[in-house]
Structure formats: C-alpha cells, structure tokens
Amino acid sequence: MSAADASVVVPAREEGSRLERTLDSLAAQLFNGRLEVIVVASGATTERVARAHPAVDRVLVDDRRAGPGPARNLGAAVAGGEVVLFTDADTVVPPRWVRRHYRHYAAPEVVGVGGPLRPLEGGLRHRALFRVLSDWWYRACWPVGFVQQAGCNCSVRRTAFETIGGFDDDLRFLEDTDLSLRLAREGPVVYDHTCPVETSARRQGRVGYARLFWTYLVGYLEYALPGSSPTRDYF
C-alpha cells in the first residue's frame, strides 16, 4: 500500500469520455494531505484515459464486469489511505470534496460519510427531483436509521470497511445501501448536506423518474424480505 492520508476509488466501465472530466475534478482537489487516486477500469478506452491522466496513481484492470460493488472492493483492497472515498466515472466532485469528507474522521468514532447528489445535466425537472430524491430523502431517512450513502459520494474509514467485508459482491443493486447499513453497526455514519457532487442524470432521463421510483421501491422491499435479495442489474 502507498503512503496516503486519503484514497479515492473510481470504478469506470466503458466511460472513457466521461472519466476524464471526473479525473480533472480530482486533480483540482484542495486537500493538504497525501491523496491517491485509483481507477478500476473496464474497457480499453477507459483504461487508456486513466493511464494517461496525471491525477491517477494506480490503474487496476477489471475484466470481470461484475458490477460497481466488486470494482470498488478491488480498488479499496490496494488503497493506502485510512479514509477511502468512492465516486463514479460520470461524476464531477467539487474542489473541497476530499477535504469535506476527511474532516469528519477527526472524530475517531466516525466510520463513514455521505453527501447529496446534483444533476450534471441542466433543467428544472432534474434539479428539483434530484433535490427531493438525493438530498431531502437522505435527510429524512438518516435520523431514523435508514442510512444510505450514495456510491458516487461516500467515504469510509478503511478499518471499519475491512471489518464488515466491504461491499457485498453478490449485490448488483442497492450495494451502497447495504454497505451503509452494515457500516452503521460499527459506528456513526455522517450525512453532510454541504458536500454535494454532480452526477449524470442520463439513466433518469432514459427510463424516467417514475420507473426509477418503482425500481427502488421494489429493490427496498426485496432487500427487507428474509431470504430475498435485489440482485437485478441497475435498470
């Protein structure tokens, strides 16, 4: 493992054109500590973009295509930072993103941090629905114990992440919710509403918000039922 204070893991599957924008935002981080960036790449173009970008410290090739959870686990396994942050290859993070996450770990009991999502694409509809579904929903459910770190805007204390075994490799949907709920058994998971990221609304635009709501509702029910699991692919 490299000597780092914080590590960022970016799973990227066939995201060459979008990945560069994500990496540019990571290169612009205003963080005083030692930061490493790890890309878990699937696809020749994605791998080429990752290897060429100066912000990237390490590129791991993932030929399994088993989903975001296993890819994040692969990156976290080689991360040197005590704090490991996760974002996606269609996401742009603000300049103080790492710093805002990292500051919460000054409290030794904190094991995880999550934040809200904003749409990269313009339009009042996207902005309003993201605010409701990817911010206000989190603010409402977090205090009652339904902790949901979004996979593209979350961080973990590496020791706690290792204790719970990381993301569940068998889950291809709600793997970030599952991680959050198991992580919360180890200690406080903080929701920081002042730490948003901008992420693509392409899926929402393609399938519609009504189907999005239904997909998550069914997934939550499957997750809650004994002996059941939301193993479907995301959309």
From TrEMBL:
Primary location group: membrane
An MF annotation (GO) of this entry: glycosyltransferase activity
Transport as UniProt keyword: no
InterPro entries, sorted: Glyco_trans_2-like, Nucleotide-diphossugar_trans
Record GO cellular component, one term: plasma membrane
UniProt entry tagged with the keyword Transferase: yes
Residue ranges annotated for the Glycosyltransferase 2-like domain, each copy included: 7-130
Keyword terms, alphabetized: Cell membrane, Glycosyltransferase, Membrane, Transferase
Subcellular location: Cell membrane
The protein's name: Family 2 glycosyl transferase
Organism annotation: Natrinema versiforme JCM 10478
Source taxonomy: Archaea, Methanobacteriati, Methanobacteriota, Stenosarchaea group, Halobacteria
